[in-house]
Amino acid sequence: MTASAPLRRDRRRKRRSRATFASVLGELLLTAGVLVLLFVVWQMWVGDIIIDAQQNAKGADVVKEWADEPAPTPPPVVDKGDGTTWYEPPVLPHPADGQTFALMRIPRFGDDYVKNIAGGTSRERTLDHVGIGVYTESKMPGEVGNFSVAGHRTTWGKPLNKIDKLRLNDAIVVETPEGWYTYRFRTLEYVKPSAVDVLLDVPQMPKAQTGERYITLTACSPLYSLAERIVAYGVFESFQPRIEGPPASLAHVDVAPPSAEGAR
Predict the structure, then answer these.
(1) What is the pLDDT averaged over residues 191-195?
(2) What local confidence, expressed as pLDDT, does residue 155 receive?
(3) Catalytic residue chosen out of the listed positions 105, 108, 153, 220
(4) Residue 263: its pLDDT value, please?
(5) Catalytic choice (105, 152, 153, 242)
(6) 10 Å Cβ neighbour count for 121?
(7) Residue 99 CB partners (closer than 8 Å, separation 6+)
(8) Largest Cα–Cα separation, the chain
(9) Is 88 exposed, middle or buried (0-12, 13-18, 19+ CB in 10 A)?
(10) CB 3.0–4.6 Å: which of 63, 106, 160, 199 could bond 219 by disulfide?
(11) Where would I find the H helices in the chain?
(12) Domain 49-263 fold
């Protein structure tokens, strides 16, 4: 017995309906996949380029603003105890959460690298929108102890993306309205996220008191992962008051060749 003509037509309509629904669903899924891919591309690359440029532009505006203002009275010159003298670095008050107070300048990262530094290390108030954040218990620039900061290596302008490119004695300069605090890079280390002892006054030495001034930069590692932390340590070299103009430590340096760390 064969199906009647109306029944056959009904079956054909149902098959066409199922085929049409599957086609539409497939197109919607394909479109959604393309949109997700575009979002990832934006978040990981295009957005980073734009945000990085915006952060540097904001920093450059602050540099100009401070340069146009009357220079503050320089701090006293003191004897270092080894027959030489230096300007006693002024110690700034600790900033409030999200409050911008200084700029990070690292010639190894490029002449246009000028990142704002703000209080706190929360993503929503500091790291995602300002750039570099100061840990709550950190000492301040030029203060005896450890000036410790954090920043992204990927997304949101990735201000510490090139932290693994630092070389021995590279300048890490913190600029404030008062002047420039120059630190010199010493070494890199990889630690677990739980290794908070890298933020101690003498990193990883809980009971030590050296009287030295350190800087510690922290970021996630490897790239696009939270598995570890990459930590850069530096030691304080000098403070130069604004009245004397920019220090020699801000001089241009050649960009370092790629290192193997990027593959980690």
Answers:
(1) 96
(2) 85
(3) 220
(4) 42
(5) 152
(6) 20
(7) 118, 119
(8) 114
(9) middle
(10) 160
(11) 5-41, 47-68
(12) Sortase; Chain: A; (2.40.260)
Range in 28-32, 207-211, 228-232, 244-248 with the lowest mean pLDDT: 28-32
> What's the pLDDT band for 40 if we cut at 50, 70, 90?
low
- And the tokens for 68? 């146009």
> The tokens of 239 are what?
């403070």
- Provide the pLDDT for residue 30: 63
Asked if residues 259 and 223 have their Cβ atoms less than 8 Å apart, the reply is no
Tell me the C-alpha distance between 70 and 243, whole Å. Answer: 9
Query: Higher confidence at residue 258 or residue 230?
Result: 230
Phi first, then psi, for residue 226 (nearest 5°) are -110, 15
Structure tokens of 135?
């840990």
Answer for the pair 90, 178: CB distance below 8 angstroms, yes or no.
yes
Listed in sequence order, the residues at least 6 apart from 156 whose beta carbon sits closer than 8 Å to its beta carbon are 48, 51, 127, 128, 129
For 72, 77, 86, 235, the CA distances from 82, given in Å and listed in that order, are 28, 14, 11, 18
Catalytic residue among 105, 108, 153, 229: 229
Region of residue 22 (phi > 0: left; psi between -120 and 50: alpha; otherwise: beta): alpha
User: What is the model's pTM?
Assistant: 0.81
Answer yes or no: 152 catalytic: yes
| Residues 47-90 pLDDT 10s | 667 777 788 888 889 989 999 999 999 999 999 888 899 999 99
Sign of the alpha-carbon dihedral angle for 172, 125, 222, 215: positive
- CA 79 to CA 87: how far, in whole Å? 9
Q: Which helix (H) or strand (E) holds 79?
A: strand 77-79
Establish whether 153 is a catalytic residue.
no
- Please say if 220 is a catalytic residue: yes
Integer Cα distance of 20 and 202 in angstroms: 68
